[in-house]
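Schema walk-through. Below, the input block comes first and the output block second. Nothing else is stored per chain. Lengths vary across the set, and this one has 194 residues.
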Amino acid sequence: MKNILLYTLLVNLSLPLAGFSADLSKKGNSAVGAKVWSDNCGRCHNIRDARELRDDQWKTTVFHMRVRAGLTGQETRDVIAFLTSTNNPPRRNIFSGSSSTSSSKTKLSGKQVYNQTCIACHGENGKGTLPGVPDFTRNKGPLAKNDKTLIKNITDGYQGPGSPMAMPAKGGKADLSDNEIRAVLVYIRREFGK
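--- output ---
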């Protein structure tokens, strides 16, 4: 009898694992993952610094919680992309002018970067759509900081005091160039600064 129960338990645990590994063959969207995390996981968990766990540990953790949260395969990939996006942020000084050829070309305007990457959390009006996301329109909000600090926060990711979740490096879009980061900051200041 014990062998049958053990076998049943192992089969039931292994079936979801097979489906989960197939899910990881497709890429997730970290900006969407931030919203999914906030809407589902954030109800019970305050996010800790994503760098506390390795990518493989986040995958295991999200798999465990996927069933409890009722996440679809795509939502799971998106949450994993969000959580793992801050593990290996680039550590370059974009003020020094030492950029690779690929990062020195601007592909997107600041508005395009904002609408494709930042809007999911910061919202169309810059006031934030998720708990803990800073309001760009506040007088003493994040835009009161200097450009060097804000570019570092965008490049490396940032978790503000009291915020339940961290912004991933480059908003989760790892291929943003230095010029695109500068362009989005100019756009944010123009649109939401006072």
